[in-house]
Structure formats: C-alpha cells, structure tokens
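The protein record filed here:
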Amino acid sequence: MKAYDGMYIGGSWRPAAGPDVIEVVDPADEQVIATVPAGTVEDVDAAVRAARAALPAWAATPPAERAARLTALRDALVARQDEIARTVTAELGAPPKLAQAVHVGMPVMVAGSYAELAATYAFEEKTGNSTVLHEPVGVVGAITPWNYPLHQIVAKVAPALAAGCTIVVKPAEDTPLTARLFAEAVHEAGVPAGVFNLVTGLGPVAGQALAEHPDVDLVSFTGSTAVGRRIGAIASGMVKRVALELGGKSANVILPSADLARAVNVGVANVMSNSGQTCSAWTRMLVHRDSYDEAVELAAAAAAKYGDRIGPLVNARQQERVRGYIEKGVAEGARLVAGGPEAPREKGCFVSPTVLADVTPEMTVAQEEIFGPVLCVLRYDDEEDALRIANGTVYGLSGAVWAGDEAEAVAFARRMDTGQVDINGGSFNPLAPFGGYKQSGVGRELGVHGLTEYLQTKSLQF
C-alpha cells in the first residue's frame, strides 16, 4: 500500500492542511491499495486562491498558446497511457482492455479535440456595428465522479483551459489515483502554475467547500441527480453558473422493422460496458409485443456471455445497492431471466449480468437509475405506446432507436425527450454535444457546445 501526500496547488504538490486520509480500495479483491489526503476547507481555499491569481495571465494568453498546452497535455497522457490504464483497473476495477481503449483512449481524443478548437474557435466576431467577445467565465470548480475517472476530468478541464479559465478539480474519493496521474501530466505539459489545481477529498467537505466558495464563478458537476440538486441550489443562491451532468434511464427502442438480433445484442453490450456504471447506458429495452419473447431469449443469452468479461462495481456499497434493485424488481413482478442478486464470486464487488423481463413502466427498476449491469426489458403495443414509455421518466440523457429504415428511426428519435440518441447503433462522436433533458442535467459537454459552457459574452458597439 502506498501513502500519497499533498495536493496539486499553484503548480506544485503541497502538504495537505489536515491529517485525515482516504483509503483507496481495489474492488476486485476489496484490499486497500493506497491512501490520499482528505482535503479540507483550507485546502480548497488555497486552490481557489491559486486559480484566481493565475486567471488574468491565462485568460490573456493567446488561444494558439492555450492550444499548444492542450496538445502537450494530450501527448503527456499518451506517454502515460499504460500507467493510467493500470491505475483505472486497480481503483475502479475496469478490465484492462476496457481501461486502455475507453478509459484512456476516449479522454485522449477529447483532449486533442479541444486543442484544435482552442486554435480555431472565433473568440471575437462581428455582428452589425458590434464586436462580440467570447471571454472566459473565470474560476471553475469541477467535481467529478468515479465511473470514468479520467474522461470526466478531461471533459471539464480541456474546454475550461481552451476557454481561458482556470480550474480546481475535486475528483471522486473512490478513484483519486487517476486524478493524481492527470495532475502530473498537466505539470509535464507546461500548463502555468495555478491554472489547474487538484484537491482530493470527500464530497460533503471538499466538494461542498468548492461549490460554496465565493471566488468560484462556475461549478461543473457530474454525478447523481440528488447531489446535482444541492449544488444547483447552492449556486443559485450565489448567482453563479452551473453545468450539471446527472443521471439517466435511457430507452433503447427497437421498432418492429429493426434487425432484432443485432439491436438486442448491441443493446445488451451497451448496458454491460463498464459493469453498467454508465449514466447514458440504455438500461430500458423497449420491444414490440409480437417480438417480445424472442427478444427476451436473445437478451438472456447475450447477457450470459458477459459473466466473466465484466469487472466489479466500484465498491461494496454500490454492489449492495444494485443487488437491492434486482431484488426489488423481482418483488414488484419482474421475471429474472439472467443473472440475479446473488454475488457470483466469494471476493470482490461483483454483480452478475442481469436481465429482468416483464418489467412495466411504473416499476422502480424502470424509473430509477440502477447503475449496474442490469437490463430491463419492456413491451409496447404500438409506436405511440413506445414513445410514452420512452419519455415516461424524470430523466432524458441518452437513448437509441432501431428500425429497418433510417428515416423511420430518425422520425421517432426526434420525438424523444432526451439529449442524445443513437440511430441503428451510431458510434460515439467526441465532437457532438453530450448532456440531458429534464432531471438529467443542465448544459452540455464535448465539442464546441462544451467549450461555450466556459465562456461569457461581451459586446462592443461602434
């Protein structure tokens, strides 16, 4: 076990203000692998003050130079990709191939995309007799989750730096080691002191202190809707901006004309990826009643193949939470066709890939975010019924539509109350805006829409 010390503040590692530490646990065997400092209000204040002091110079840095620092950051991440992947596997439990391809590969792409945007975005534009300036919003407080520990940091830090903002990151307490490696990459990339700062700590202490700090101009949070509401309330009381990427209960709608086998197999793979710990996962599969029984059989067979291929959940609390949802689903009338609540291994925070059939829209498992490898299969009568079910939750983050004719799928997708829809298995696009409708959040990440979250506008009239 390694005991890490210090917070990355003002361009160097500084001793923490308090003696408390956070234990980092490998969820595959539930052994403590490291400790990191538990940040205090004093640590957060020091980090914010460093970010505030660095803001004028960084905001005035030419966009081309900001782009060069982001390119250097991307290259530093690539140089460390094997170490980062091993760390993600150790503290999150992600299988090595997933850690390398997704947990490292995706944020590398995102960092590169913002290097290009910083160099090409029109930070000034003419409209009539006015010049419109797009200026950095200021100091950003970023609070990130554990499910994609590097991606969630890069998706906030890269656009903030491209915009000319400075930033303080409070990573999830379950996965702080990846965040520390990111801080080292930032240092290697030559990002000026104070532009990026890292404080590890607990949400109710360090996270709340960051959200409440009067010198933080924007709070960017990814996590649960319940915590997002609290952060939104804090921010509104202080009239500061927020960007909230929250929960999801995404619908995977398989229309009668679709290739059923492909739609089901891809849908199951989507839910099982990252052990189901993905806010945009298509956790509700909607199938026409004429094809329902066949779809359930296909889904059960597909899920069974993932038994030894998915990693553990992030911790024992999450394991028990997911197992509780499975039990509740069965108690409310769902039919268990794959997996179940029983732990598949004696050690580790594992949950079996699970498929619940005969799920109805009002069931708890059809309404609440489970955040584990659990697929709910629902039947519908006609297209209007499918739309009613798809839109019938408080969430609206992502979704999918499958149809034999692309135009048919697009027409249905246009009526879905959700921020992103994949058509017939459309692939991930790091330039497309990501974010939710309804209680899935406020604002967007990725691409130019993610950049504008960190900008404010000023007009000069001539």
Notes: Residues 330 and 336 are 7 Å apart (CA to CA). The first strand starts at residue 2 and ends at 3. The chain has 15 helices and 21 strands.
